[in-house]
Amino acid sequence: MNKTININMNKCDGDGGCLNYCPNQVFELRKITANEYDSLKFLGKFKTMIKGRVKSFAVNSENCVECGLCIQQCHERAIQFV
Ligand code: SF4
Question: I need a surface site. Which of 24, 48, 51, 66 has the fewest CB within 10 A?
Answer without folding.
Answer: 66
